[in-house]
Amino acid sequence: MDRWIHPAVFFFIGSLLLPLIKNEKAKKFILLLIPVLGIIDVALMQEGIYGSFSFLNIKLIFGRVDKLSLVFAWVFVIMAFLGALYALHVKEDGHHIAGNFYIGSSLGAIFGGDYITVFIFWEIMAFSSVFLVWFRKEQRSIEAGYRYLLVHVFGGLLFLAGMMLYYYKTGSMAFERILPANAGIAEYLILAGFSLNAAVLPLHAWLPDAYPEATVEGAVFMCAFTTKTAVYVLARGFPGFEVLAILGTAMTVYGVFYAVIENDMRRVLAYHIISQVGYMVAGVGIGTELSVNGACAHAFAHILYKALLFMGAGAVLYMTGTAKLTRLGGLYKYMPLTMIFYIVGAISISGFPLFSGFVSKSMIVAAAHEEGRLILMLLMNLAGIGTFLSVGLKVTYFAFFSKDEAPIKTTEPPKNMLWSMGLTSALCFIIGIYPDSLYVLLPYHVEYRPYTLSHLSEMLQILSFTGLIFFLLVKKLSPEEKLNLDMDYFYRKGGRAFMFVDDMAIAPVDTWWGNIYNTVALKLLFLKAKFAYAFDRIVIDGIVDGTALSVRMAGFLVRKLQTGRVQAYIGFAVFILVVVIWFALRMG
Amino acid sequence: MNVLKYIEALRNNLSALKKVLIVYLIVLVIYDIVIHIGAHGHFFVDNIPGFWTLFGGIGCFILIKVAKGIAHAFLSKDEDFYG
Predict the structure, then answer these.
(1) CA of A382: which chain B residue's CA is closest?
(2) What is the pLDDT of residue A360?
(3) Who has the most CB within 10 Å: A62, A321, A570, B45?
(4) Which positions in chain B touch A464 (Cβ < 8 Å)?
């Protein structure tokens, strides 16, 4: 196929058709058709550069199709289908539109060949995904959504600032591999912007803050796209950056540490996204062909099993109304299929032989081993212990067993949820027993065999003896109804401090200024208006008609700027941003 | 439901299951010792038979103790901490 259709087109246009369709069945058909068209499109794609335009002397590339972008595109469209199937029962069109825009913009960022294209889709991702949190319609979700949005706007600004400096330095917006030796402030700002979306420490707190507050179906989408798009851009631009190898490994351990003490099922899983993305970031940071391959393979496998885990936890939340382990237990009698699918996800993430994590995670650990990075390798294996301990054993035990009689009695979730979980489980298993199906998609050609005697022995020992210790210490692991502090403490409490300063110092000044404004400026304005009105009526009388109108408009504009509504401020900030970019580009 | 029957069967035979698992753990360690005969790895840890047994067991123990310890010391707050 020498013609190229951007797969995002299906998701953008398809989702906008939804509100026009009244028939329930037709709507469901469209919802499933969109990702199917996406899959066909990606399957027919040939490598090459497509959709490039010149805009203000900058070359925009919408379709850079190569092995690296294709492996991510594949898993994104597959996940889009599984997610759509899982969310089929959702009635609100807005939810589906937000989800499809989110997927479409992720695909846009993957195929973008220059920083501007990536940046535009990057921002659409943040602004569409936040609705998947807000649609939960609870006070906690609304607040978490605002924090999520503000943090991502901050990350986007880091990216934007880096991008501008990069343009001044090189005169190019092309998004290519950056060598660590050439990296200056511009490159590190871009790296920081990317890292925020990959939840790299210490810019990670938005993830376990927002994902557990998202809707049941929204969380399944969110766990797949934001962090993995970030892994893609890191793998594209920053392989071999030592800082990523170290921070990535730190993430693997940090995530499981919190997962061991958390109570909410979905928060445990959210911390495991940090942990698992840590492997990928470390793989990018180690920077060999094997390790970058490992990062891509792990992203692919991770999207599937993490979505499966979120589907399982979501099904429990959907049916029982809570995801807190302290309130659950004994569910194996009521949701045995959900439990089995959850366990498939759990042993995949833990890296059990025959399941997908075993063939992907081990590539990164093997790369660390090959490069002589003993400490990185040991810490990654330690994180592997924590993964099985918290996702595999703790959650399974306390949600589905632990009590003989379930405190909340329920049934299996709707059929579409079960089908989606079943299909995803099958994919985890197929990748595990036939790893070449995944390896053939990877960007570099590297010979790697996961099923060796020593690797099997290593993983089985680690996992089995973790299991033994778990059953000996299970009482010590009882979940507690507590909130665990994380880095969001600084901006959540920092926000309070800001409000305090605002109340004590800024507000009085504001009031004082407001008084002056009211007494002096407004009076002058009214005076001018009266005068203009009188002048208008008496002197010109209809010849110059717009004066009174323009004064009223000015007053209206001033009022608008003072509403204090967040969307107005964000809109205004975006507007200023566009103006700044435009000027910057014209100057260059 | 069939699935449920199997799960109940396992739960009713916990002591037998325990014995099987203990035998499995022993076999696993013996297997690791066997594959180490005559093998030379990259790091010193690759040359110790049963290293990952100790690593798994001790690592898990330390992880539980440290995580719960730090949580109880200062990380855990009431659920309405942020209001």
Answers:
(1) B59
(2) 92
(3) A62
(4) 24-25, 28, 56
